[in-house]
Amino acid sequence: MSFGLPTGQLFKSNNLHSWWDLHRLTEIEAFKAQCNDLTFKVLSCFAWHMGLPKDFFTTSHQDGLPRNTLKFIKYPKLAIKPDDAVPRLTEHTDWGSITLLFTDSPGLEVLDPQDQWHEVPQLPGGIVINIGDALSLWTGQQLKSTMHRISWEKVPVDQDRYSMPYFVHPNFSKCRATPLGQRLILSCVLLCEKCFMLTAGTGSHQPQISQGAREYGGKGDHIQRLL
Ligand SMILES: O=C(O)CCC(=O)C(=O)O
Ligand SMILES: [Fe+2]
Questions:
Q1: Residue 150 Cβ contacting ligand 1 at under 6 Å
Q2: Residues 1, 12: contact at Cβ < 8 Å?
Q3: Which residues contact 125 (CB under 8 A, 6 or more apart)?
Q4: Which SS3 state, helix, strand or coil, does residue 69 take?
Q5: Which residues, if any, are the signal sequence (predicted)?
Q6: With a 6 A CB cut-off, is 100 part of the ligand 1 pocket?
């Protein structure tokens, strides 16, 4: 179930029964506004630490943040555990600027530069912030997008798992010149939107950039090519 913009617009998935009402939608909009405030603080911190003007990234995230999406995810329990080689959510990077991840379920793992997976510790009330491909490309990979996955280890197969990511994307029309050039980030984000449309259309819960792009005219290596 995803809550995108414009405010109040709802994209329903079949995985969860309908439970929302107007009261909840109001709460959700207020929560999204808090997510946007936090996003601006985080992006300002990144810019400041990189010696850039504090508004370097945030000015490209205004205009009502048209592509940010709050998503509620249910990983349903299964009768039989799949092969160990198949994680609950396959490894991927998110393709926006950052993702704020809210969950009280364990199971998230991140890959380090030595190709070792690490469990992300659960902090009560904590928010995991993943860097996405857009910010990585934008900063010439000074900020690296986080390769992550969900394992089966921590939430047994006979239990549902829930999480709530808030995906943040830059405005297409307002990206400022970057170390790698403005056109680069725009073409990446536009391509990724095509991936999203394609994979969303097939009912896939999480579009995989490389997979989605492969479906998009066989150009599966666009991220690698851009790097
Ligand atoms: O469910 C989670 O904890 C992570 C979800 C995620 O990585 C995604 O939807 O991109
Ligand atoms: Fe993700």
A1: yes
A2: yes
A3: none
A4: strand
A5: none
A6: no
